[in-house]
Amino acid sequence: MKDLLNLAWPDILGFFLVFVRVGVIFSIVPFFSAEIIPRRIVAIISFMLSLILLPVVPMAHVNSDNIGVFYILMLLFHEFLVGLCLGLAIDIIFAGIQMAGQLAGFQMGFAIVNVIDPMTGVNAPVTSNFLYIVSFLVFLVLDGHYLLIKGMVESFRLIPIDIALPTQGFLFAPVAYGAKMFIIALKVSAPVIGVLLLVNVAFALVARAVPQMNVFLMSFPIVIIAGLISLIVVLKLLAPVLSISIGHAWRFMVFSMSNF
């Protein structure tokens, strides 16, 4: 019985380390990180996926003959960093979409029209929630969830379970990739901002030409209608923007993992 437990201990440790990496990823990526999703469900999904991935995970770098508390803590820290990096690669895409919705909503006059975001539990503009939900559906249509699972499997090949500390390139990779959030926000919100800028310029010219007209009162419904029409155009841009962003996320994951 003692020999059986000794043989099973490295496998149990390996499964727990895989579970940590997968669990950190699922605790960050959209939908699974939402407050409306019970933590128990996320834990069960992470547990089942870890069981599936365990047979293909290389354990050659785990020294089962010299396992101590410090060694296990180093392994846990290693897996936490890798999972955090992979989770941020996907989460930054949707953070950019949310920022685009905030920019568009501010220009449309929806800055004070906030609702509780069911994903994060905080106040967010209506346009931000709308674009976030639509972009998540588009993400599923573009097989983004397959990319996430593929990234998990590839991560164990490029970064096997080890106690190696990350390099400087790995630590600065998320900072450099974070700029993509602002690029995505500008790409998605540009049509709305551009159209509303032209509408405001037109109202300024009308106010200059006809001072008696109450342009301020007239501008509210027209700005909202123009903004909603622009959002229809934005919805058509979500698919190509997300497709390009998913490609960038995959290259980021490969680059960061190869520089670990």
Shape: elongated
Range of strand content: under 5%
- Outline the low-pLDDT stretches: 1-7
**Cα-atom radius of gyration:** 24 Å
Number of domains: 1
- H/E element order: HHHEEHHHHH
Spatial order of strands in the largest sheet: 1-2
Helical coverage, percent range: over 70%
Through-space gap between termini? 39 Å
Number of strands: 2
The major beta sheet can be summarized as: 2 strands, antiparallel
Which class of secondary structure composition applies to the elements? mainly alpha
The DSSP helix count reads: 8
Mean pLDDT: 78
Question: Which properties best describe this structure?
Answer:
single chain; mainly alpha; 8 helices; 2 strands
Folded structure, characterized:
The protein has 260 residues and is an all-alpha fold. It has one domain (2-258). 75% of the residues lie in helices and 2% in strands. It is built from eight helices and two strands; from the N terminus they run αααββααααα. A two-stranded antiparallel ribbon has the order 1-2. β1 and β2 form a beta hairpin. α3 packs antiparallel against α8 (215-258).
